[in-house]
Inverse folding.
């Protein structure tokens, strides 16, 4: 997951193409960051969230 000040769409595409599971731009709301972290954890550890 990238948390960055780079706000251009091309930066976001670059991050996702290069393996980021998420891309959050600063400034961000704490709730948004927590939600994205939960989403990434569900992607990479689905068994811990009852998804397998």
């Amino acid at each position: 997951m990238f948390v960055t000040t780079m706000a251009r769409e091309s930066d976001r595409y670059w991050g996702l193409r290069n393996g980021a599971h998420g891309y959050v731009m600063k400034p961000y709301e704490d709730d948004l960051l927590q939600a994205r972290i939960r989403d990434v954890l569900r992607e990479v550890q689905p068994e811990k969230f009852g998804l397998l």
Remarks:
- The beta strands are 2-4, 23-25.
